[in-house]
Amino acid sequence: MVAEHRLCFPILVFIYLLFCSSQFAVSQPILDYNTTLSNSTAGLARLSSFWINRPSVILNSTAYANYFGWTTTILKRRNAGSRFLCGFYCNYYATECLLETGNLVLFDKDNRTIWQSFNHPTDTLLPGQSLVSGRKLTASVSADNSSQGLFSLTVYRGGWSAYTVTDPPQYYYSSYYEDNPYFSFDGDTLTALHPTNSTAQFIKIEPNGHLKVYQWSVMNWNELDITASRVGNCGYPMVCGRYSIFTNNGQCACPPQENFFRPSSERKPDLGCSQLTSIYCNSSQYHSFIELKDTAYFSFQYNHEPSSSIFWLEEKKLEDCKRACLRNCSCKAAVFEYNWNGNQRGSCLLLNEVFSLIENNGQGRGKTVFLKVQNQSSIIPGRKKSRPFQVIIGSTLAAFFGIILSIATCFVILKKRIHESRKAADFLNLEPILPGILTRFSYNELKVITEDFSSKLGEGGFGSVYEGTLRNGTKIAVKHLDGLAQVKESFLIEVKAVGGIHHINLVKLIGFCAEKSHRLLIYEYMVNGSLDYA
After folding, report:
1. CA–CA dist 457, 312 (Å, integer)
2. In three state form, how does the secondary structure of 310-334 look?
3. Same domain for 93 and 76
4. What three-state secondary structure class fits 18?
5. What is the average pLDDT across 252-275?
6. Under 8 Å between Cβ of 493 and 481
7. Alpha-carbon distance 337 to 294, whole Å?
8. Cβ atoms 498, 509 nearer than 8 A
9. Mean pLDDT across the stretch 300-313?
10. How far apart, in Å, do the first and last CA atoms of the chain sit?
């Protein structure tokens, strides 16, 4: 029991669902709080710590709660008595507590802080929480998906900046020393200030890249966009989606060359554009550019960092900028701006990811964007075929000729077999040559007559001779020829030559067998001789 009292564990308590429809529906506004949210509800769910969930309890008495030492409540309803959504219990020997600031702190036995949630921000800064170099806020994918999204906020090189989570990052907002009622910044640390005219306040980076301040005002949250004044409506990376252009009339449109780009969604142009043909690194000789004059890119003025030196080039000619992008397989586009001194050189930014583009108003000497594309003769008449197209054509032709070769091979084999069958038919057509003289025996008949070739009389160069007896009692000698290829011609000659001759010095041929690969000759049995040399 003593060990149990020394433990301080979080207990998640849910409001009784009976009151969901009237007193605690999610869609109902929250009327009052005892404390603010720890890194907002979504942020608390993404803390990198382990929780031990205990059985839920419902406390109907404030005295009951005080007796057990509840120190912090979250989302407490004024008209719900002592019921609350979530709370933490800490006894006298507590080692883990949720402070009034919303900071979840783990203490050691000497009451020293060994871990706190404020050092592991997600997408939100609570009042009193600081962001230092090496830490960052990262937006979620969407309001319903708390996975890591595309945008982050961090302190870097004397300022705090918002950027895309890419390699290298693409910055779209940067600020240094400035007065702000919601946070303070001394060049190294960005700290969220406590609200002066609100009961609750937090700063959050949104899934769309906006940085907003939320303040609770009686019945709802008031929002203030911190970055909007400098970024504007068109300066956010995904305001129109990838490869899409934010036009002067406030619309989103794909690049004018329809042969290369199409909207990702016809009904939602702000979802961006996709390339009709993917860019292949092994066919760089077929890469070219679509030139978009008087077109800006959000990160051009911010991406001068050493970490992106391979993507930022200064004092380069326009052609040098384009060649650098063509040589770099990961480069998807190049942004170029001439210097104002008229020396025909300028700054070049290479992009390995292309987000929203911005159409200039045509005033002054603007930037030019070169989008890398893959050429195909099926898309642009007169252009060379791309390597993937050649591979497809080559594979198709190879398959076609392979089929033709297979058909020809089968035809030759079939013709050869027909020829061999016709030759073999000679053995099966002896009756018209010697009608009524020779008897055709089947192989099975000869197996019976010779008792499965059990009595061997002798063996010669062309086969073995076996003894047999016909049904009428006549003794016969059966010569079984070996090697069809070597004996079939001699077999036919012997059958034709000997079959019709009857002489006192010659043994008489009385029959034959030509069945499949079996070739046998049937002679009268010689009592005083041998047929192994016949």
Report:
1. 100
2. CCEEEEECHHHHHHHHHHCCCCCEE
3. yes
4. helix
5. 91
6. no
7. 10
8. yes
9. 67
10. 112
Run of H or E residues at 10: strand 10-11
Q: What is the DSSP letter of 19?
A: G
Are 161 and 174 within 8 A, CB to CB? yes
Is residue 366 domain-shared with residue 413, that is, in the same domain?
no
CA 188 to chain centre: 40
Distance CA 4, CA 2 (A): 5
Residue found under tokens 């392979």: 402
Nearby residues of 432 by Cβ (< 8 Å), 6 or more positions away: none
Please compute the mean of the pLDDT values over residues 290-312 and round it to a whole number: 77
Number of domains observed in the structure of the chain: 5
Q: How many CA atoms lie within 13 A of 354 on its CB side?
A: 26
Distance in angstroms (rounded) separating the CA atoms of residues 222 and 440? 110
R_g of the chain computed on alpha carbons? 47
The answer to whether 372 is a known ligand-binding residue is no
111 has pLDDT over 70: yes
Query: Pick from 476, 488, 475, 496: which is nearest to 518 by CA?
Result: 488
Q: Which amino acid is present at 212? A: K
The helix/strand/coil state of 183 is strand
Q: Which residue from 193, 189, 190 is spatially nearest to 215, judged by alpha carbons?
A: 193
Contact yes or no for 271/239 (Cβ under 8 A) = no
Q: Which is higher by pLDDT, 63 or 394? A: 394
Task: Give me the numbers of helices (H) and strands (E) for the chain, helices first please.
Answer: 8, 34
Q: Which 8-state DSSP code applies to residue 195?
A: P
Is 97 found in the same domain as 181? no
Q: What tokens were used for 506?
A: 């010659």
Distance CA 95, CA 7 (A): 7
131 and 113 share one domain: no
What's the gap between Cα 128 and its chain centre?
A: 42
Q: Which of the residue ranges 125-134, 388-397, 423-432 has the most confident prediction, judged by mean pLDDT?
A: 125-134
Confidence of residue 532 (pLDDT cuts 50, 70, 90): very low
Q: Measure Cα distances from 233 to 162, 223, 246, 252, 337 in Å.
A: 16, 16, 9, 12, 22
> Two tokens at 157?
């090189």
Residue 273 neighbours by CB distance under 10 Å: 24
Same structural domain for residues 330 and 443?
Answer: no
Same domain, 71 and 159: no
